[in-house]
Design a protein that fits this description.
Layout lengths: L2 E6 L2 H10 L3 E4 L5 E5 L2 E5 L4 H13 L6 E11 L9 E9 L5 E2 L11 E6 L14 E3 L2 H8 L8 E9 L8 H10 L1 H12 L11 H13 L4 H18 L17 H16 L1
Parallel strand pairs: 1-4, 1-5, 5-10, 6-8, 8-9
Antiparallel strand pairs: 2-3, 3-4, 5-9, 6-7, 6-10
Helix pairs in contact: 1-4, 2-3, 7-8
């Protein structure tokens, strides 16, 4: 059964799921808590790009992400002419308004949900948002860009419930909880679908990539966790950059004599794959 990592920006978005699945509070580090039971994990990232990159990045760095599907779920503002308040949408396109980058989630799941594009902005939109054709949030782009370094692009699922038509800032936890609870049966069905789907680990790496990564594992004497993380980052690099990882072959001739040397080289490789 696949592991489902649910991310939300707000605790109020997570609370119905925590209660429904009876998730238990756990600690990843001094400042990062999450909730988990069995193969379902829930992490609250906080609002905005900086919080996402800090908290989600740190969490994924400490997590072995094999067999993981990330599901980002939360509220979003919606175009008045194209969306319905309270309705659940599957995101098929994410645009980072700050830099114009476009991300294309491609989970290959037949959810039956209506699909909608999502724009990630730096501050809340309350003027009606006529310039946005679909939905608006503040975290989607950062979540995708951070997660894809660890989890294959086809294992990233984005779900949004329309909370407003970009004319108000919804800051009532009770209202948020109510919106999530009303869609909980649908969300539960989707999580069950993802848990039992065959899309996890549909290969993005070809035989040459696998051969290179195996060579790096041996020459750099990587641990099992480092090996998993290297593969995840390589898949993320290929998915995002649409480029090859042949440049990593330069590390095949590196001689590792200490754990400190291995850690230094491994960090250097991960940095190059995250650029």
């Amino acid at each position: 059964m696949n592991h489902i990592l649910i991310t939300t920006a707000l605790q109020a978005e997570a609370q119905p799921l925590i209660e429904h699945y009876q998730l238990e509070k756990k600690q990843c580090s001094a400042n990062i808590f999450y909730f988990q039971r069995g193969v379902i994990t829930c992490l609250t990232t906080g609002v905005g790009e900086k919080n996402v990159r800090k908290r989600l990045g740190a969490f994924l760095n400490e997590t072995v992400c094999r067999n993981t599907i990330l599901m980002n779920m939360g509220i979003a503002g919606g175009n008045q002419d194209a969306t319905e308040i309270g309705k659940l949408y599957l995101i098929n396109k994410i645009t980072d308004e700050k830099n114009g980058k476009v991300w294309l989630p491609d989970a290959l799941l037949k959810t039956g949900l209506p699909e909608m594009p999502l724009s990630s902005v730096s501050k809340g939109v309350t003027d009606g948002g006529n310039q946005y054709a679909g939905l608006v949030d503040m975290e989607g782009a950062a979540i995708f860009e951070t997660a894809v370094q660890f989890i294959p692009v086809h294992c990233l699922v984005f779900l949004k419930i329309v909370s407003d038509h970009m004319d108000v800032i919804l800051d009532s936890p009770e209202q948020v909880v109510s919106l999530i609870n009303k869609r909980l049966p649908e969300i539960d069905g989707l999580i069950s679908l993802m848990q039992n789907s065959g899309l996890v680990r549909t290969p993005l790496l070809n035989d040459q990539h696998e051969h290179l990564l195996n060579g790096l594992k041996k020459s750099l004497k990587l641990t099992a966790t480092q090996t998993y993380q290297l593969k995840d980052k390589a898949e993320g690099f290929i998915a995002v950059q649409n480029d090859d990882i042949a440049f990593l072959s330069q590390y095949l001739k590196v001689e590792i004599k200490t754990k400190q040397e291995r850690t230094k080289i491994f960090h250097e490789i991960c940095t190059s794959l995250s650029a």
